[in-house]
Amino acid sequence: MSTHGGFPRVYDPKKSRDWKQLVKQYVREAVKESSDEFPYEGPLRIWMKFVMPLPKSAHRKRKPPQEVWSIKKPDVDNLYKGIADAMEGIVYKNDSQISHLVIEKKTAAQGNEAKVMIEVTPAI
Question: Based on the number of CB atoms within 10 Å of its own CB, is 117 exposed (0-12), middle (13-18) or buried (19 or more)?
């Protein structure tokens, strides 16, 4: 957010736009087979797990290989918001439908890739 001529202006940086586009591609592919269920209506429960890349300096240090909680940037709220925005209109109509949210952020185990796992279910 910035101001121009005394008026607030909101913009989405290119890196953020590219991330949302990538997420949209994966989400569309994931829901393609069951498109009659989507977009969900009503309250939703969402679980997300972000497995961040292992820093190069940790490759020699961590034994045995395992995921550990990550306290490095980016913040979980920034990770979540990009995904929630990208799923809007595909998985659900509006992210205001999310009534229960669990987010985990870990660093990948040695030899494992970074990944994001998402589970969306109706809140009953």
Answer: exposed
Taking residue 3's Cβ as centre, other Cβ atoms within 10 Å add up to 8
pLDDT tens-digit map of 33-42:
776 788 999 9
- CA–CA distance from 4 to each of 26, 42, 115, 124 (Å)? 36, 38, 38, 45
Residue 108: DSSP 8-state:
P
CA distance 3 to 11: 11
Torsion sign (Cα): 70, 72, 73, 77:
positive
Q: What angle do CA 66, 72, 76 make, to 5 degrees?
A: 95
> pLDDT per residue over 55-98, tens digit each?
877 666 655 568 889 998 999 998 999 999 999 999 999 999 99
Please tell me whether the overall predicted TM-score, pTM, comes out greater than 0.85 for this model: no
